[in-house]
Amino acid sequence: MTISWISKHHSELDVHELYAILALRTQVFVVEQNCPYLETDGQDLVGDTCHLLARDESGLVGYLRLLDPQRMDGEVVIGRVVIAERARGSGLGHRLMERALVE
Q: With respect to CATH, is domain 4-102 assigned 3.40.630.30?
């Protein structure tokens, strides 16, 4: 699986990227995990929040969000870590987290 890595400040996301992110998060967190909660929590588009996307030839397969450290008392907060079902078991989750620690 060849992965393209994209790291963007929230202000750089285009509407298609944001839609793919929210669709993947909703599919996994709300539908697959049966957790009926408001997935859009108001943190995606504030301050210096950044988004790390992993794409293959079929589209978005992995994602995580790095919240703005200024808004989190100087702490780096990684959240909304998600891997598409078709990419699970490939080690992509480990690679995604390693990449996040470098960002």
A: yes
